[in-house]
Amino acid sequence: MTLKECYAALGADFEGTLGRLCSEKLVQKFALKFLADESYPTLEKAMEEENYTDAFRASHTLKGVCANLGYTRLYEASDVLTEALRDGKKPADDTLLEQVKDEYRRTVELLQELQNTV
Predict the structure, then answer these.
(1) Confidence check: pLDDT of 77 > 90
(2) What predicted TM-score, i.e. pTM, was given to this entire model?
(3) Do residues 78 and 97 touch, judged by C-beta distance below 8 A?
(4) How confident is the model at residue 20 (pLDDT cuts 50, 70, 90)?
């Protein structure tokens, strides 16, 4: 799998990310660094502990990372969750974390596939 194929499979914004980072090599470097990012595990733990203030911070960080890397679908899911957590309370919609979780898993799977081919 190529970097462009990975971005296409993710429904991600490759051209926008390339415009920000200026080289495919940097896009690939930071795309793969996402696999070590702790935002999602921190979010999941905070939600399990019902610590919605920390969950907001983690979701907001995840949203920012996804915006910078052009991971549109995961960005959108984390943006909705971030806004639901903004007041520091449990979100009214219990499916929001599941939506983030699904997009996160999909993103990680495709990035691992990319990592195995480079």
Answers:
(1) yes
(2) 0.94
(3) no
(4) very high
pLDDT of residue 118: 84
d(CA 74, CA 12): 9
d(CA 67, CA 12): 10
Q: How far apart are CA 90 and CA 18, in angstroms?
A: 36
Q: Return the structure tokens found at 49.
A: 């502990």
Q: Which alpha helices (H) appear in the chain, and where do they start and end?
A: 3-10, 14-21, 24-33, 39-48, 52-69, 72-85, 95-117
DSSP symbol at 69: H
Place of tokens 């194929």: 5
